[in-house]
């Protein structure tokens, strides 16, 4: 047992202690368990939502993108800003409707708005399909962090099992209260670690930020800007827009908004979050610092750049702190994902087909599903191979397909019918799956288009198809409904 | 279109439409290549703009009065 491992396990045990302690003195019905009794103020909602945003993907993936791709990684800072602006109006509207109707999950929202439990089943299944790869990603990151920082003493396999058992236990015991408390520990640690690494490493190895960027530019001209083709400016803009629209569509992020005590919480967060997410800038600095120091990490191994550079630079005890911070970036989102997926399945899929189930039974089923979903994710983690990033991007494209139906449901004038919403989501999800499986790009679909149009994120096509079908089907179903009403009259 | 909506639209214009014009390394600003400094500047501006929106927004005053 080296110093790094002692620290990592110490932090793990401490956060479990906080998580288990958090539920004391609260009656854990489903509303307490999933949405914290809707009593969380600015600070907690801020931490919860930030907690879900700063995941292992940003910790390892953000530095990995800077290391492997350079300029295109800047999109990670841009999309959050636009998402927070949208949240200023979107989340208060979602929140007040959810409170008024005592909603618990994202699917409840669609069920109530469109008056269709079957639409809720569809939304739940899309959500679960998107969440599983997201959870797999957290577990894989967890495995990398623990095994790298243990200097190879713990295998990634053992690390994943340790992580998954910890997540499962505290999610089952404390629900969202556990996540909120662990968010506090995690955010303090991640902030300190990332700021330190992002400032120390460029100065230590290059003498300063500009020196670092100049050396990278000399070694590889054009690397720190967007390329002419491929991940070009057109790719940047379309990806930033799509990701911003999908940002709050993840079932766990959407339903975390229910836990706020009033809508002003979100409006205040829209001011703070753009600043808070600048932490990511320092994650990018770490990735850039690694380029000339630990060269040669290819493909998926780029995700190791932060850890490898840390191992090369610091003593084991400090590597332990970095590892512990990374561990928490996997645990918090991992627990939120597990909770959302199990609540969705119990309440919005199972209960629809077995309507006689009581609330207590649903609550029990949701808790029992936690280890089941955890095991499914473990299965994919060991089986998955290198396609994790593809899966995450697919997950993002999947949840983005829920955005049009949500947006139209918020307008006073109801344009979209439940059939329209259903058909639109099916079309969008079908298009995303087809595009992902066949690796289609706009360039392969329309070879004659100018280069800028070819570089657009192909998710735009799926979204346009989604909206077109949604409106067309809505017009048809609306018409038949009104003629049927005419005939009846 | 109210003033607060125009203010909130500015980062969309800056980040989505402005990026092709900002796509260059020099001049370096605060040690960062120009394109990165440009994105970071918009993150800071977003926060400032949303603070102005918050102050101007009548919704927040209405809820305070309640």
UniProtKB/TrEMBL annotation, chain A:
<comment type="similarity">
    <text>Belongs to the sodium:solute symporter (SSF) (TC 2.A.21) family.</text>
</comment>
<feature type="transmembrane region" description="Helical">
    <location>
        <begin position="158"/>
        <end position="182"/>
    </location>
</feature>
<feature type="transmembrane region" description="Helical">
    <location>
        <begin position="275"/>
        <end position="297"/>
    </location>
</feature>
<feature type="transmembrane region" description="Helical">
    <location>
        <begin position="362"/>
        <end position="382"/>
    </location>
</feature>
<keyword id="KW-1133">Transmembrane helix</keyword>
<keyword id="KW-0813">Transport</keyword>
<keyword id="KW-0812">Transmembrane</keyword>
<dbReference type="GO" id="GO:0005886">
    <property type="term" value="C:plasma membrane"/>
</dbReference>
<feature type="transmembrane region" description="Helical">
    <location>
        <begin position="188"/>
        <end position="207"/>
    </location>
</feature>
<dbReference type="GO" id="GO:0022857">
    <property type="term" value="F:transmembrane transporter activity"/>
</dbReference>
<dbReference type="InterPro" id="IPR050277">
    <property type="entry name" value="Sodium:Solute_Symporter"/>
</dbReference>
<feature type="transmembrane region" description="Helical">
    <location>
        <begin position="118"/>
        <end position="137"/>
    </location>
</feature>
<feature type="transmembrane region" description="Helical">
    <location>
        <begin position="420"/>
        <end position="437"/>
    </location>
</feature>
<dbReference type="InterPro" id="IPR038377">
    <property type="entry name" value="Na/Glc_symporter_sf"/>
</dbReference>
<protein>
    <submittedName>
        <fullName>Sodium:solute symporter</fullName>
    </submittedName>
</protein>
<feature type="transmembrane region" description="Helical">
    <location>
        <begin position="73"/>
        <end position="98"/>
    </location>
</feature>
<feature type="transmembrane region" description="Helical">
    <location>
        <begin position="38"/>
        <end position="61"/>
    </location>
</feature>
<dbReference type="Pfam" id="PF00474">
    <property type="entry name" value="SSF"/>
</dbReference>
<feature type="transmembrane region" description="Helical">
    <location>
        <begin position="317"/>
        <end position="341"/>
    </location>
</feature>
<keyword id="KW-0472">Membrane</keyword>
<feature type="transmembrane region" description="Helical">
    <location>
        <begin position="457"/>
        <end position="477"/>
    </location>
</feature>
<dbReference type="InterPro" id="IPR001734">
    <property type="entry name" value="Na/solute_symporter"/>
</dbReference>
From TrEMBL, chain B:
<keyword id="KW-1133">Transmembrane helix</keyword>
<feature type="transmembrane region" description="Helical">
    <location>
        <begin position="32"/>
        <end position="56"/>
    </location>
</feature>
<protein>
    <submittedName>
        <fullName>DUF3311 domain-containing protein</fullName>
    </submittedName>
</protein>
<keyword id="KW-0812">Transmembrane</keyword>
<dbReference type="InterPro" id="IPR021741">
    <property type="entry name" value="DUF3311"/>
</dbReference>
<dbReference type="Pfam" id="PF11755">
    <property type="entry name" value="DUF3311"/>
</dbReference>
<keyword id="KW-0472">Membrane</keyword>
């Amino acid at each position: 047992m080296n110093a790094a491992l002692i620290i990592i396990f110490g932090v793990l045990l401490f956060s479990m202690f906080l998580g288990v302690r958090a539920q004391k003195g609260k009656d854990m019905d489903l509303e307490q368990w999933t949405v914290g009794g809707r009593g969380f103020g600015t600070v907690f909602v801020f931490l919860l939502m930030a907690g879900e945003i700063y995941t292992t993907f940003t910790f390892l993936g953000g530095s990995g993108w800077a290391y492997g791709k350079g300029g295109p990684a800047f999109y990670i800072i841009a999309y959050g800003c636009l998402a927070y602006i949208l949240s200023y109006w979107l989340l208060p509207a979602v929140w007040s409707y959810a409170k008024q109707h005592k909603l618990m999950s994202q699917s409840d929202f669609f069920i109530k708005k469109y008056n269709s439990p079957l639409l809720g089943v569809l939304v739940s299944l899309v959500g679960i399909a998107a969440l599983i790869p997201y959870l797999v990603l957290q577990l894989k990151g967890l495995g990398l962090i623990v095994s790298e920082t243990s200097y190879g003493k713990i295998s990634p396999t053992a690390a994943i099992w340790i992580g998954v058992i910890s997540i499962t236990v505290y999610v089952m015991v404390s629900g969202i209260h556990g996540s909120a408390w662990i968010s506090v520990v995690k955010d303090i640690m991640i902030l300190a670690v990332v700021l330190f690494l992002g400032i120390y490493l460029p100065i230590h190895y290059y003498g300063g930020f500009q020196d670092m960027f100049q050396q990278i530019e000399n070694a590889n001209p054009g690397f720190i800007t967007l390329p002419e083709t491929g991940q070009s400016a057109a790719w940047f803009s379309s990806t930033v827009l799509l990701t911003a629209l999908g940002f709050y569509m993840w079932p766990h992020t959407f339903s975390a908004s229910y836990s706020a005590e009033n809508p002003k919480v979100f409006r205040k967060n829209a001011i703070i979050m753009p600043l808070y997410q600048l932490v990511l800038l320092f994650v990018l600095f770490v990735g850039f610092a690694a380029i000339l120091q630990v060269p040669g990490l290819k493909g998926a191994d780029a995700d190791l750049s932060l850890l490898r550079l840390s191992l090369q630079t610091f003593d084991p005890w400090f590597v332990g702190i970095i590892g512990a911070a990374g561990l928490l970036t996997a645990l918090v989102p991992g627990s939120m994902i597990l909770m959302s997926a199990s609540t969705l399945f119990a309440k919005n899929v199972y209960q629809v087909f077995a309507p006689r189930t009581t609330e207590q039974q649903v609550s029990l089923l949701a808790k029992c599903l936690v280890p089941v979903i955890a095991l499914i994710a473990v299965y994919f983690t060991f089986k998955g191979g290198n396609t994790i990033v593809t899966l995450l991007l697919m997950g993002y494209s999947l949840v983005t397909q829920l955005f049009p139906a949500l947006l139209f449901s918020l307008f006073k004038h109801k344009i979209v019918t439940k059939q329209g919403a259903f058909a639109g989501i099916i079309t969008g999800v079908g298009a995303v799956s087809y595009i992902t499986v066949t690796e289609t790009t706009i360039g392969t679909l329309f070879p004659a288009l100018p280069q800028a149009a070819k570089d657009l994120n192909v998710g735009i096509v799926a979204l346009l198809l989604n909206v077109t079908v949604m409106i067309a089907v809505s017009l048809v179903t609306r018409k038949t409904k009104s003629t049927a009403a005419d005939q009846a009259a | 279109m109210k003033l607060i909506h125009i203010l909130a639209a500015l980062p969309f214009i800056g980040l989505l439409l402005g990026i092709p014009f900002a796509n260059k390394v020099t001049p370096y600003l605060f040690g960062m290549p120009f394109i990165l400094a440009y994105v970071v500047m918009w993150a800071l501006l977003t926060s400032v703009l949303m603070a102005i929106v918050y102050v101007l927004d009548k919704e927040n005053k209405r809820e305070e009065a309640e």
